[in-house]
What we know:
About 60% of the residues lie in helices and about 20% in strands. The chain contains 7 helices and 5 strands; from the N terminus they run E-E-E-H-H-H-E-E-H-H-H-H. The radius of gyration is 18 Å and the shape is globular. It starts with 5 loop residues before the first strand and ends with a helix. The mean pLDDT is about 85.
Amino acid sequence: MDNQNIILFENRQVRRHYDAEKDIWYFSVVDIVGTLTESINPTDYLKKLRKRDVELGTYLGTNCPQVDMLSNGKKRKTLAGNVQAIFSLIQSIPSSKAEPFKQWLAKVGYERMQEIADPSQSIDRARENWQKLGRSDKWIQQRMTGQETRNKLTDYWKEAVQVHL
Length: 165
């Protein structure tokens, strides 16, 4: 998975997607259900929850778009919610992890605000998250160098296109 789009809650991976146009983070609903319930099959748990709580099911269907996220190495459309939708979901799941998850979600939002004010913090957090995922220092350095090379190449292409227009 693209580790920049994975965050950890109590060592469990939660996929996320950033919509730059809307400036919104979306989180995988299934990952959150799995984290809160520790269900072996969070997809089935979510289906049963949506049938049992029709209002929640309608809310999620209306407010949670399908966004591309990696799943088993392939990009797939995944039901994802913004922070408001995730809070509604959390309220519907009886779990001792609900309150710690809310606090964690607030921390993620606060960190995003810090990264906007100081973008270097996002680089530091990426390195820290890769370490938590067990990546070696060599792997992390190669990944960061590769990202910088891609950014420079993309900038070069943008400049070249503008010159020719």
